[in-house]
Structure formats: structure tokens, C-alpha cells
């Protein structure tokens, strides 16, 4: 989520797949037909419309599917809850950043499970690609076509609020309109390399992520005090300490006294630092205001298919393979598919936690179904297995060989500042205790991911494979894509 316009119409997606435009409010600023990709203070300053701060000029875009009189129920309708009078109602979940990689898969999964879902997004992730000359391996439908297709296949509505959560007036209107029981917050700039390109993107990442999360906290406090915040954190907050990584907290004895304290943070990029700031702000508001929150410190996600995104080509999720947004295993599978050597950074001993995207959506559902208590800041380490980069490369090489692919590996100078050989043992038991049934990395999963990459290999731009962002060479001047 980032700075973008709030426009003047409500977009209702009906069961007949037609868009209905209805006036919501008057706004003196027209909807732009194009975007100036120039960069000044923020890489998106010229993407935002200059708008008046008065209440009269506030305007919102809402896109929602018109409710059917009798909505089809899923076989496993886990999204219902009991009201005070004993009636059963559907639990409302707002997915912020629901047009993104993890957010889209999560929104569909929760909708299929019987939750009433609303997506809040400003669609800025799509503009990142335009700005940097990148493209998802998979062709991505517009958010409106995605929602229409989901409705036509399942009979289920997903509401859409298009706007910027850094604009509190917009977020407040979305909260008051939808009245969420839980908020799943994916709405942040998620790439460490992106935050290390130049000063403007570093500033943008921290402003967007920290201010956006603060606005979500204030919206919960003001409008939905019982709402449960499920926030996507990152295992990168912990760094690579030479001791075991606990789940959020550590009990220490110092000078004869014992206390349980937040686990020390050792962020390794401006992006990871923004996540640390988020965690501190959420923890404070839980203590001060009684907010209930679950921080999901997620490992590196791989895969593209979930049961829901595989239902139709218009529901397919994005798959990033470039050096800015692509994650390690996804990148390696695409590289193998096009015959490019696997790009192992440095010595390849960097070890992290990994999980299938099907487990991302499962973990979010578990957190929603088992909410934190009022005033509780709960931390789950969200991953299923640990691998080093060299181990991943070996697994892809072996799996590629079975498919007749000649897979080679090349060592690339590490663009990051990080330990390339280190101890790493992170605890991750809490989600298992609540019922997580993981999809572990197997030969069949690697075969599927490799075949998927081969299917779309003609869309690969090999110029985007090698790393282009250096931690040590980050500069003050904005970098743009050469024509």
C-alpha cells in the first residue's frame, strides 16, 4: 500500500459481471488517465493527486459485488460466528494489500472458507513493475476482473476499497463502511532490495509501512475496538543471531534477575527496519489501548498455486523472478526453466525459514480463528522448514534434472550486507499447536513449480534475473530505468 488517489465513484460488480458507477461524493480532482513516473522526494509523489484537505473534497473508491439473495455456502464454512442473541453471522475480514502476492491468495482462501472479505488496496504494486521495467512471470488480470471471476465461479462477494491507508480519512471510511472483525495487514512495500535502491525509496518504504500501520492501529482504536489485527511481519526482524531464535520473546537472567523481553532485533535493510518499527508500535498500542494483535513473522514464501487461484486463469497469482521482488526458490525455478545458471549470492550459506504460499493462507486463517486476547501482542514465527541457499540450489538442480533440464549454478558477488555462513535455529511451534498442517517442500512440489515456470518461460526477461541493487552503493539520487 502506498500513496495513490482516492477517486469519486463506487464500482459495484454485479452478478451479471457489469460494472455500475454510482456517485459517492464530489471531488474536484479528475481521475488521471496516465501517471508521471518521475521521482522527486518520494518515488510516488507525482502518482498522488493533489487534493484539498477539507471534508468536502474527501472522496473514496469502493468496488463491491452486489450481494445475492441466497449465497452459496462452502463445504467448510469456518468464517461464521455467534452473535449475542445466538444467531450465526459471517465474520468480516478486511485484507489490506489484497491485490498482492500473499494478499490475493489469502483473500480468496478466506472467502472460500465462508468469511465476508473486503480488499483494501491502492494497486501500487502494479506500478512498481511499470516504474522498474519488471513484469510478473504470470499474466495478472485487473483486480476488478479478478473479483468478477471469483463471483461468477463461487457466488461469493469480495468488496473492494481502492485507496491509500496512509490517508487516514480514506481508511476511516473503509472501516466504518465494512466494520471488520479482523484486519489482515499485508499492505506494505515488501522488498528489501527495493528499499535499498536509493534514498527516495528508502524513505518511501519507511513512511508507507510505518505510517500505514499506525493508521490501521488508530482506526481499530477509534472504530472497531474488538477488531483483531493480524499483521504480516518478517523473520528478517531477528537477523542471524548466534543463539536460537524464539517466537517474539526471550527470557533472560541478568545480574541475578529474570525477565521475559522482546527478542532482540537485528534488521538488515530499510525494509526490515520498517517492520521492526511496526512491531514496536503494535506492542505499545496493545499495552496502552488494549488492542489485540498477532504478528506473523513470516519466512521466505515460495510457490504460486493455491486451491483457489488455480480455479481459473483470471485468478492466477503473480510470480516474481527478478532481483528486486523475486524470492529465492521462485527465482531458482524460473532460472532453471530458461537455462540460466542459478544465482547463488556469496558463499550460499545464508539460511532462512521457508514456507509454501498454501501455508501462508492457512496460517492467517488459523490466527483469525484463534484471536489474541485484548491487550495481547502475540508473535508467531511463520515458516515450516529451514534451508540454506546452497541447499535450495541443490534441490532445484536435482528436480530439474528429472525433468530433462540442465541446471547449473553460478556464484554471484553478494549485493547484500549479511553473514554468508552462520548459525540459524528458529523456533516455530505455536502455529503447529493451533493446527497447522504444513505442505513441506517435496519433489512433487518442485516438479510442479518447475513445470509452471516452463509453461510461462516465454514471458521471462532474462535481463531482470541478475541482482541490480547493492546495499553498499545505495545513493541519494533517484535511479530510473534506462529507455
Set down the secondary structure blueprint.
Layout: E1 9-13, E2 19-23, E3 61-65, E4 80-82, E5 88-90, E6 92-96, H1 101-112, E7 116-121, H2 124-132, H3 143-154, E8 158-162, H4 168-178, E9 182-185, H5 192-195, H6 199-223, E10 228-234, E11 249-254, E12 257-262, H7 270-289, E13 292-298, E14 300-302, H8 328-337, E15 342-345, E16 351-356, H9 357-369, E17 377-382, E18 385-388, H10 389-402, E19 409-412, H11 430-433, H12 443-455
Parallel strand pairs: 1-3, 6-7, 6-9, 7-8, 9-10, 10-13, 13-17, 14-16, 15-19
Antiparallel strand pairs: 1-2, 3-8, 4-5, 11-12, 16-18
Helix pairs in contact: 1-9, 4-6, 6-7, 8-10, 8-12, 10-12
Any descriptors?
483 residues, alpha/beta, ten-stranded mixed beta sheet, three-stranded mixed beta sheet, 12 helices, 19 strands, 30% helix, disordered N terminus, Epimerase_deHydtase, NAD(P)-bd_dom_sf, NAD-dependent epimerase/dehydratase domain-containing protein
Helix content: 25-40%
In terms of quaternary structure, what is this? Answer: single chain
Structural class: alpha/beta
Mean pLDDT across residues: 87
Order of strands, main sheet, comes to 2-1-3-8-7-6-9-10-13-17
Treating each run of at least 4 consecutive H or I residues as one helix, how many helices? Answer: 12
Largest beta sheet, briefly? 10 strands, mixed
**Rg, Å, rounded:** 22 Å
Organism: Anisodus tanguticus
InterPro entries: Epimerase_deHydtase, NAD(P)-bd_dom_sf
Protein name: NAD-dependent epimerase/dehydratase domain-containing protein
Domain NAD-dependent epimerase/dehydratase: 93-381
Amino acid at each position: 500500500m502506498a500513496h495513490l488517489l482516492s477517486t469519486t465513484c463506487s464500482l459495484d460488480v454485479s452478478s451479471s459481471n457489469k460494472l455500475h458507477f454510482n456517485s459517492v461524493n464530489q471531488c474536484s480532482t479528475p481521475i488521471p488517465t496516465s501517471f508521471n513516473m518521475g521521482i522527486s522526494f518520494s518515488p510516488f509523489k507525482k502518482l498522488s493527486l493533489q487534493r484539498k484537505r477539507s471534508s468536502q473534497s474527501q472522496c473514496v473508491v469502493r468496488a463491491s459485488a452486489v450481494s445475492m439473495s441466497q449465497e452459496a455456502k462452502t463445504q467448510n464454512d469456518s468464517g461464521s460466528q455467534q452473535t449475542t442473541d445466538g444467531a450465526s453471522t459471517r465474520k468480516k475480514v478486511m485484507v489490506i494489500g489484497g491485490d498482492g502476492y500473499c494478499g490475493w491468495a489469502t483473500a480468496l482462501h478466506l472467502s472460500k472458507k465462508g468469511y465476508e472479505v473486503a480488499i483494501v488496496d491502492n494497486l501500487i504494486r502494479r506500478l512498481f513493475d511499470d516504474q522498474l521495467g519488471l513484469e510478473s512471470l504470470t499474466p495478472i488480470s485487473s483486480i476488478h476482473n479478478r473479483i468478477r471471476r471469483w463471483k461468477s465461479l463461487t457466488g461469493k462477494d469480495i468488496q473492494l476499497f481502492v485507496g491509500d491507508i496512509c490517508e487516514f480519512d480514506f481508511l476511516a471510511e473503509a472501516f466504518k463502511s465494512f466494520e471488520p472483525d479482523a484486519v489482515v495487514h499485508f499492505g506494505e512495500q515488501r522488498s528489501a532490495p527495493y528499499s535499498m535502491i536509493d534514498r527516495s525509496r528508502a524513505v518511501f518504504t519507511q513512511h508507507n509501512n510505518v505510517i500505514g500501520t499506525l493508521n490501521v492501529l488508530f482506526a481499530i482504536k477509534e472504530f472497531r475496538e474488538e477488531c483483531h489485527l493480524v499483521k504480516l511481519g518478517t523473520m528478517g526482524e531477528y537477523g542471524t543471531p548466534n543463539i536460537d531464535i524464539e517466537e517474539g520473546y526471550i527470557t533472560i537472567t541478568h545480574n541475578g534477575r529474570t525477565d521475559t523481553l522482546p527478542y532482540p532485533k537485528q534488521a538488515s535493510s530499510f525494509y526490515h527496519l520498517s517492520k521492526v518499527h511496526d512491531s514496536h508500535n503494535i506492542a505499545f498500542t496493545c499495552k496502552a489501548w488494549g488492542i489485540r494483535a498477532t504478528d506473523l513473522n513470516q519466512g521466505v514464501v515460495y510457490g504460486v498455486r493455491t486451491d483457489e487461484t488455480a480455479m481459473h486463469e483470471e485468478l492466477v497469482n503473480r510470480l516474481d523472478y527478478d532481483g528486486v521482488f523475486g524470492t529465492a526458490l521462485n527465482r531458482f525455478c524460473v532460472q532453471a526453466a530458461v537455462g540460466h545458471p542459478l544465482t547463488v549470492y556469496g558463499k550460499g550459506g545464508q539460511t532462512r525459514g521457508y514456507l509454501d504460499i498454501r501455508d501462508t493462507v492457512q496460517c492467517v486463517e488459523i490466527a483469525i480463528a484463534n484471536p489474541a486476547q485484548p491487550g495481547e501482542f502475540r508473535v508467531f514465527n511463520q515458516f515450516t522448514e529451514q534451508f540454506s541457499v546452497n541447499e535450495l540450489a541443490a534441490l532445484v538442480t536435482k528436480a530439474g534434472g528429472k525433468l530433462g533440464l540442465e541446471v547449473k549454478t553460478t556464484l554471484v558477488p553478494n549485493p547484500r550486507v549479511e553473514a554468508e555462513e552462520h548459525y540459524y535455529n528458529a523456533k516455530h511451534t505455536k502455529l503447529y499447536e493451533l493446527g497447522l498442517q504444513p505442505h513441506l517442500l517435496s519433489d512433487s512440489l518442485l516438479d510442479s513449480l518447475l513445470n509452471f515456470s516452463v509453461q510461462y518461460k516465454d514471458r521471462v526477461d532474462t535481463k531482470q534475473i541478475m541482482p541490480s541493487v547493492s546495499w553498499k552503493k545505495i545513493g541519494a539520487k533517484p535511479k530510473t530505468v534506462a529507455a
